[in-house]
Structure formats: structure tokens, C-alpha cells
Amino acid sequence: GENVEQHPSTLSVQEGDSAVIKCTYSDSASNYFPWYKQELGKRPQLIIDIRSNVGEKKDQRIAVTLNKTAKHFSLHITETQPEDSAVYFCAASIRNNNNDMRFGAGTRLTVKP
Amino acid sequence: EPEVTQTPSHQVTQMGQEVILRCVPISNHLYFYWYRQILGQKVEFLVSFYNNEISEKSEIFDDQFSVERPDGSNFTLKIRSTKLEDSAMYFCASSRQQSTDTQYFGPGTRLTVL
Predict the structure, then answer these.
(1) Bigger pLDDT: B58 vs A21
(2) Which terminus of chain B is less hemmed in, N or C, by CB atoms within 10 Å?
(3) pLDDT at position B98, please?
(4) CA of B47 to nearest chain A CA: how many angstroms apart?
(5) pLDDT in tens, B70-83
(6) Record: contact A106-B42, CB cut-off 8 A
(7) Chains A, B: CB pairs < 8 Å
(8) How far is CA A41 from the centre of its chain?
């Protein structure tokens, strides 16, 4: 089955700096890669996703890149704000068989004011 | 905006007891999921459900677990004989279609097994 590795486990940045979180996956058939943000005690919420026919996707301060050859994808947050502080999870699934979505271990992002 | 709902928000039970966790997926969604998150750890896939049957389950989802859609709106997870290590947050999720929209998570049920 799919195995998703995520790094780093914790990340601390100053407000206004950029943050980058990286994930790798093992199953070359995976073709859907969502990113979830989870604030303390709350549900995971989708912030951005990318499909394998796209190399990069951007939504305001958030971008995701995908390298299918290397089987890795990354989340980029620019101009970080204190409210970006949360745990971020990457995930991977085989889109045409979206029954088994595997999550990375999570990255705890702290944005210092 | 419609959301996935779950009840109860917190369930405390004695080891060996049966628990049923309830979820109401978004009404026009066809695919339903259960995930588990042990405190401080990652979200782990348990099971997916479509067309009134399990479509996939993980190695965590053993014979102690079962899922059911007893009516047109509820989706339940039953743990037959709870163990201490079943203590976790359980998230239900739903998606509209398998090949299009993403999965939307409910607020979770915190299960504490004593």
C-alpha cells in the first residue's frame, strides 16, 4: 500500500517568512495529493490539493508543487501569519480508487509574531 | 454550507464495552469514510463505504470494527469490545464522488476507553 513520509515534523518561522513542508510517497499510481490543516482540537480541513496532471497549483499565499518522477510534493506558504500556526498533513491516494487515502505524520507549524 | 456532523463529541467507555459512533455525511455525498487519530499522531484510514458496502479497509479495521448505514442519513462505526488502545479521535468523512471532490471531515468523536 501507499506510504507517505512528511518532513519536517516541526517548523518554526517568523511572521512574514515562508514555510515549506515536504512529502514523499511510495505508490507511483497515486495521483491525488491533498493538504489538510488541523488546528488544535479541530477537524482536518482541506487547504489545497493537486492532481497528477498538474505540476504546481497556487491559491493566494499557498502553493503546492508535485514532482511525479521523484514522487514528492511540497506545500509552500508565503508571508506567513500567526493564524497559519497549526498541524499540516499531506496525503496521497489513487484518485480513481479514492478509498484509501494515506496521510503523512504531520508538521506542526508555529508562526512567531 | 453543509457539513459532516458527528455524535457524540466525546464518549467515555469501559474496556470491553461496545460503542457506536455516529455520523451524518453531507446529504448528496455517496462515499463515506472513517479515520482514527491517536492523540498527537497522524490521521489513519480505517474504512471506506459505498453503495451500502465496504469498499476498502485498512489493517487497523479488524473484526472488532463494523460500519453500517442504517438509514438514508446516518453512517455508524461500531467497536464491539473496546480496548485501551482504541482511545483516539474518530473522524468521519464524506465525498461526493470517488473521482471528483475531496473528502470533508466531521468534527470528530473523542473516544476514551478506561
Answers:
(1) A21
(2) N
(3) 67
(4) 8
(5) 887 899 999 999 99
(6) yes
(7) 54
(8) 19
What's the one-letter identity of residue A57? K
Residues of A in contact with B39 (CB under 8 A): none
Q: Rounded distance, CA B71 to CA B87, Å?
A: 27
CA within 13 Å, CB half, B97: 3
Per-residue model confidence as pLDDT tens digits over B76-104: 999 999 999 999 999 999 988 764 468 89
Q: What string of H, E and C letters represents the secondary structure of chain B?
A: CCCCEEECCEEEECCCCCEEEEEECCCCCCEEEEEEECCCCCEEEEEEEECCEEEEECCCCCCCEEEECCCCCCEEEEECCCCHHHCEEEEEEEECCCCCCCCEECCCEEEEEC
- Interface contact flag, B107 A103, Cβ < 8 Å: no
